[in-house]
Amino acid sequence: MPKRTQPLRIFLVGFIVLSGLLTSQTMAHAGWWEDYKNGIETFTNLPQEVNELKEGYDQALNKLDQAQSNIEAYRTENARLAEQNALLAQTVEQLKQSEANRAQSARFWKGLVFTAIGIVVLFFVSTRLIRFGLRRR
């Protein structure tokens, strides 16, 4: 046996053994053509699935951008409403204070008027009583 062909024989024997092992597994089940066809179909459908995933990702990204812009709009509106609420609270407080001042002023004037009327009535009654008392004596 020449030394030149020995590595070639070893390679061929190894190749035959490996190909026998690999082909014995695929030959164990029937329908290899269907498996091959299904593999090709799956492989050809991958770009379509990738495109669908990309479109779904783009839609989710658009929805996220829209949600972020809505959140920013809500924050701006919330800040404006908070400022308006503070102004309204200040106005209500001023109205309550002016109402309290008006009520206090009204009580003062009522008391003053009733006191004046009481003094006048007391004056007339006391003068009548004094006249009556002086007539009796």
TrEMBL record:
Q: Which UniProt keywords apply?
A: Coiled coil, Membrane, Signal, Transmembrane, Transmembrane helix
Q: Which domain of life is it from?
A: Bacteria
| Coiled coil spans | 50-101
Signal sequence segment:
1-30
**Where are the bilayer-spanning segments?**
108-130
Its name, as the record gives it, is SH3 domain protein
